[in-house]
Specification:
Elements: E1 5-8, H1 20-28, E2 33-36, H2 42-49, H3 55-71, H4 78-88, H5 94-103, H6 106-125, E3 131-133, H7 136-139, E4 143-146, E5 149-152, H8 154-159, H9 163-168, E6 173-177, E7 180-182, E8 188-190, H10 196-206, E9 211-216, E10 237-238, H11 240-248, H12 255-263, E11 267-272, E12 278-282
Helix pairs in contact: 2-6, 3-4, 3-6, 10-12, 11-12
């Protein structure tokens, strides 16, 4: 049985109410690896607040607000949930949290959007199915500089394994994070804006998944913007090269995710998050080649 890897975009995650769809997804694809982005708008807010007087207060209030909403689900008191989330995002206690936020660099700070999202999604989902939260450090996503740009060190990311991650695959639903990984200095490093698709494709390659499932706020790739033109339905099927042309134009998928999936024959399926309807499948059976992984320097 193939291990399913699923990515859910931040534009899909508006609030806790939007997580009801997450329950349906985990039921349809049990024991899958689900990569979540930050909740909608949070990354931009973190970039703005990093250099402001609200640097610590914004993050504290954000976590407390999610804790209050989660408490309404009868999963614990707001204070208990607040401290559980702190623990899940790698803080030992409140003092450690305050010191960490006030002394961290920008990459660490903005990565909190994904990390908080992962913790919240895990607490929400575990009411329905066994769920584990493993962040990008646990899944082994390594970031390096290539021509002054941050990119994923694909070879290192594929070969490095955390025992907890390895032992959890196929036995529980795994919630993990996109957007960031382990930098060359061992600290948090951002892979780039909108890079969660890319990280998801690397995880799919790492666990040798046959396909990567992407949930978006639209149900596929359309030939033209459906908000501007009368286009009734997305393109049902296309090859990787066609998808890359759309990606370069800023449509739906990160180009490097397509490059990884094309290189290793990982089928991509795009679903609408809000209607759970599959719109576009991206594949090219003729591109598959047997043999060991090879890693181009451009990755």
């Amino acid at each position: 049985m193939t291990q399913h890897v699923i990515k859910i975009g931040g534009s899909c995650l508006a609030d806790l109410g939007s997580l009801d769809q997450l329950v349906k997804i985990s039921s349809a694809w049990p024991n899958s690896i689900i990569v979540v982005s930050a909740f909608k708008g949070i990354t931009d807010s973190l970039y703005r607040s990093y250099n402001s007087n609200e640097r610590f207060g914004y993050v504290e209030n954000l976590i407390r607000s999610y804790s209050v909403e989660l408490s309404k689900l009868q999963v614990g008191s707001p204070e208990k949930l607040f401290h559980r989330i702190l623990s899940m995002i790698r803080f030992n206690n409140f003092e450690d949290f305050e010191k960490g936020i006030m002394n961290c660099d920008q990459d660490f700070y903005v990565s909190l959007g994904e990390r908080i999202s992962g913790a919240v999604c895990t607490i929400f989902l575990e009411r329905y199915t066994p769920t584990s939260y493993l962040d990008s450090f646990d899944t082994g996503i390594f970031i390096r500089k290539y021509e002054e740009e941050s990119t994923i060190d694909l070879k290192k990311s594929i070969s490095s394994w955390n025992d907890e991650f390895r032992n959890s695959i196929g036995k529980t639903t795994i919630i993990t994070t996109g957007f960031y990984g382990i930098g060359e200095d061992g600290e948090v490093a951002i892979a780039g804006r909108n890079s969660s698709d890319y990280i998801s494709s690397v995880i799919a390659l790492k666990v040798r998944s046959e396909k990567l499932i992407l949930f978006k706020d639209v149900d596929g790739i359309y030939p033209a913007d459906p908000n501007k033109f009368e286009v009734k339905s997305p393109i049902k099927e296309m090859d990787y090269d066609t998808a890359m042309n759309f990606a370069i134009e800023g449509k739906i998928i990160h180009p490097d995710a397509i490059r990884v999936c094309k290189g290793y024959n990982i089928k991509m399926e795009i679903y609408g998050y809000f209607n759970l309807k599959k719109g576009t499948t991206i594949l090219n059976p003729d591109s598959y080649q047997e043999g060991e992984y090879s890693f181009p320097e451009t990755f």
